[in-house]
């Protein structure tokens, strides 16, 4: 009965009111005029008739009726008031006919404020309706550096293409990523069918997500969770899923959503002491681990793959009685899912996927097969179901930069970078800071090997540098000396000064030892949900090999820097650091945090060049940028 419904609704409203008062929060509806009172720097645009999501209607335009409702839009006035009588009449009409008259509202920052029709909104919210039609005027604030305003401007661009207003994000770039993830070009309009399909999938996801408690997670929206979900499983594939299949997938991913909310990541920057024994005497032979290594390229065509292959061979030599290894190479985005499945079918207990581009496939497999231990070689990609590992190569790059600065006679140094991803920017900046330490006049010319329509060798010839920092290592079959740090001479000859080495063998040895001795599962702390290994010089995960013909003073400097970084007495990102725009990125007597180093998206002030954007990349570089790119 409408009368009893009002009594029930008012009880809900009063409970919410009291809860907000106890928390020191506003217990009634927000008032848009009060919000806009502090600024006049905005303009209005008419949107016409809009389907308004009810859960995004948060207040009134003016203060007239705001105190008649609690903050959840439920009524709080006495049941014998005229207001209650009108609410009850509307409730009866909703039960018999259904409320269809549009309201009049204002939209500001993708939230809606009612000018006319607040009781209609209240009644429909009580009955659990999803939306209401309304004539809407948009209030557009001036574009500022405020992240919420910048996200809102991205939303308006997305809305112009899709007319979708019911999905919200907390991170910049999410609307563009959503446009891409559903298979749309950046400026492509959505058809009616596109909108229907998307709405159906999103509402199904949202219903399951909320039923699991997703609405109680802080710091993320259901839009954030949905975007992560469709990025992992593929939007078009998810459209084909049944309700039960979708529910199973959302449920199995809920711990990932919780991690997005809490951001509890255990960044392991030190390794456990090495043990002098394996378990061959304790375990029967049929308990031998079978470990798979999955490579994007082949060891003879890629220095990155070659370095991991050396690590695999080290594992075989270290654990001859306890571990059997296999590898799968020349794997791409179209074959990685099947390759991981084949590794599992082949009896592999542990799988190392050695490229950031394999992260999504690795995570899907880890969620689907929790008894299989899967690790992905990537940085800044935390998950609860899968651990990641990477090296602090920036420590070695700082020393390489110091060598380059000391050996540069004309202050021109070239640094060739591969992909604009997390970790790479820290390597570039560390190199530049190292060069600045030994040669304040030196300028680092940043070149990218991943750009289309750019020839790195031609660029080097035009710059005429003293030193070049090239790819870290070359495969033996390549027969080239263009690797590591080298000096260029006018006659075309080069002198290899130093190379940084990835010791993946030590990395893999210590991770596998933890699995063998049983500490792998027990080392998960109560306060962490994701474990990322990020090891450096102190853990022997990297090292530097340098020419014996370097000047004695330079060799002493290398040894000194290696010792102080390894001992923890010095960090390359300590002291005053300026970026290209002269912003102070770090102050005196301070050191950048690990997270600040990982997520760098700026360049040191002695670098000439910039971080490329997605459209400038070669096609083969784009999958890496999508997964790990800083822009």
Task: Describe the 3D structure.
The chain is an alpha/beta fold and 631 residues long. The chain folds into four domains: 1-142, Conserved hypothetical protein from pyrococcus furiosus pfu- 392566-001, ParB domain (Alpha-Beta Complex), CATH 3.90.1530.10; 145-263, no CATH class; 285-391, Rossmann fold (3-Layer(aba) Sandwich), CATH 3.40.50.2300; 393-469 and 541-628, Response regulator (Rossmann fold, 3-Layer(aba) Sandwich), CATH 3.40.50.2300. It has 22 helices and 22 strands. It has a seven-stranded parallel sheet with strand order 7-18-12-11-10-8-9, with helices on both faces. Strands 19-17-16-15-13-14-22 form a seven-stranded mixed sheet, with helices on both faces. Strands 1-3-5-4-6-2 form a six-stranded mixed sheet. Helix 3 packs across helix 4 (118-126), helix 7 (192-211) packs across helix 10 (243-252) and helix 15 packs antiparallel against helix 20. The longest helix is centred in the first third of the chain and has 21 residues, at 2-22. The two termini are 56 Å apart.
Quote the average pLDDT: 91
Please tell me the CATH architecture of the largest domain by its name.
3-Layer(aba) Sandwich
**Order of adjacent strands in the largest pleated sheet:** 7-18-12-11-10-8-9
Q: Provide the CATH topology of the largest domain.
A: Rossmann fold
Radius of gyration: 29 Å
How does the SSE layout of this entry go?
Elements lengths: L1 H21 L7 E2 H5 L5 E12 L3 E4 L21 H15 L6 E6 L2 E6 L1 H9 L4 E11 L5 H16 L11 H8 L10 H20 L10 H12 L1 H5 L3 H10 L1 H9 L2 E4 L20 E6 L8 H16 L4 E6 L7 H10 L4 E4 L5 H10 L4 E5 L9 E5 L1 H15 L4 E6 L6 H15 L4 E6 L7 H8 L3 E3 L15 E4 L5 E9 L1 H13 L2 H4 L7 E6 L6 E5 L5 H16 L9 E2 L5 E3 L7 H5 L8 E2 L13 H7 L3
Parallel strand pairs: 1-3, 3-5, 4-6, 7-18, 8-9, 8-10, 10-11, 11-12, 12-18, 13-14, 13-15, 14-22
Antiparallel strand pairs: 2-6, 4-5, 15-16, 16-17, 17-19, 20-21
Helix pairs in contact: 1-3, 3-4, 5-6, 6-8, 7-10, 12-18, 15-16, 15-20
């Amino acid at each position: 009965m409408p009368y009893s419904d009002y009594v029930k609704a008012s009880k809900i409203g009063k409970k919410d009111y009291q809860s907000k008062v106890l928390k020191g929060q506003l217990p009634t509806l927000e008032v848009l005029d009060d919000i806009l009172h502090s600024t006049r720097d905005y303009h209005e645009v008419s949107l016409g008739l809009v389907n308004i999501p009810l859960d995004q209607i948060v207040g009134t335009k003016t203060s007239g009726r705001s105190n008649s409702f609690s903050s959840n839009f439920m009524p709080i006035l006495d049941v014998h008031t005229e207001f209650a009588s009108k609410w009850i009449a509307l409730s009866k009409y909703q039960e018999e006919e259904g409320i269809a008259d549009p309201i009049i509202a204002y939209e500001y920052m993708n939230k809606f404020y009612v000018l006319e029709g607040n009781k209609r909104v209240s009644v429909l919210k009580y009955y659990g309706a999803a939306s209401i039609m309304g004539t809407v005027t948009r209030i557009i604030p001036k574009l500022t550096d405020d992240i919420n305003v910048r996200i809102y401007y991205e939303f308006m661009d997305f809305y112009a293409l899709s007319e979708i207003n019911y999905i919200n994000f907390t991170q910049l770039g999410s609307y563009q990523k959503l446009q891409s993830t559903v298979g749309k070009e950046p400026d492509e309009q959505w058809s009616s069918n596109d909108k229907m399909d998307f709405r159906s999938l999103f509402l199904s996801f949202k219903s399951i997500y909320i039923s699991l408690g997703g609405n109680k997670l802080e710091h993320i929206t259901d839009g954030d969770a949905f975007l992560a979900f469709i990025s992992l499983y593929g939007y078009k594939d998810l459209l084909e899923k049944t309700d039960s299949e979708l529910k199973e997938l959302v449920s199995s991913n809920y711990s990932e959503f919780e991690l997005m909310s809490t951001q509890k990541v255990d960044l392991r920057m030190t390794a456990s002491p090495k043990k002098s024994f394996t378990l061959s005497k304790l375990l029967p032979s049929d308990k031998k681990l079978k470990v798979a290594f999955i490579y994007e390229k082949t060891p003879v065509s890629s220095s990155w793959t070659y370095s991991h292959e050396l690590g695999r061979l080290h594992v075989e030599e270290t654990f001859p009685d306890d571990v059997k290894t296999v590898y799968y190479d020349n794997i791409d985005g179209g074959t990685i899912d099947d390759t991981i499945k084949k590794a599992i079918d082949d009896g592999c207990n542990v799988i190392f996927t050695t490229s950031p581009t394999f992260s999504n496939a690795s995570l899907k497999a880890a969620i689907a097969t929790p008894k299989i231990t899967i690790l992905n070689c990537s940085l800044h990609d935390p998950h609860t179901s899968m651990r990641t590992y990477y090296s602090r190569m920036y420590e070695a790059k700082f020393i390489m930069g110091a060598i380059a600065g000391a050996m540069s006679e004309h202050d021109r140094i070239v640094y060739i970078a591969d992909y604009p991803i997390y970790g790479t920017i820290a390597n570039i900046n560390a190199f530049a800071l190292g060069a600045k330490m030994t040669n304040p006049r030196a300028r680092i010319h940043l070149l990218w090997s991943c750009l289309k329509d750019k020839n790195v060798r031609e660029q080097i010839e035009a710059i005429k540098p003293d030193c070049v920092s090239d790819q870290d290592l070359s495969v033996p079959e390549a027969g080239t000396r263009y690797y590591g740090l080298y000096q260029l001479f006018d006659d075309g000859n080069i002198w290899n000064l130093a190379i940084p080495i990835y010791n993946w063998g030590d990395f893999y040895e210590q991770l596998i030892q933890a699995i063998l001795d049983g500490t792998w599962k027990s080392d998960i702390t109560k306060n962490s949900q994701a474990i990322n290994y990020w090891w450096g010089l102190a853990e022997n995960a990297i090292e530097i090999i340098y020419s014996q013909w370097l000047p004695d003073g330079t060799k002493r400097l290398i040894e000194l820097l290696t010792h102080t970084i390894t001992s923890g007495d010095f960090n390359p990102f300590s002291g005053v650091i300026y970026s290209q725009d002269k912003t102070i990125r770090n102050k005196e007597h301070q050191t950048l945090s690990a997270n600040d180093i990982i997520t760098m998206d700026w360049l040191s002030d002695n670098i000439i060049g910039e971080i490329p954007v997605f459209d400038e990349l070669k096609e083969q570089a784009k999958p890496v940028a999508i997964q790990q790119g800083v822009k």
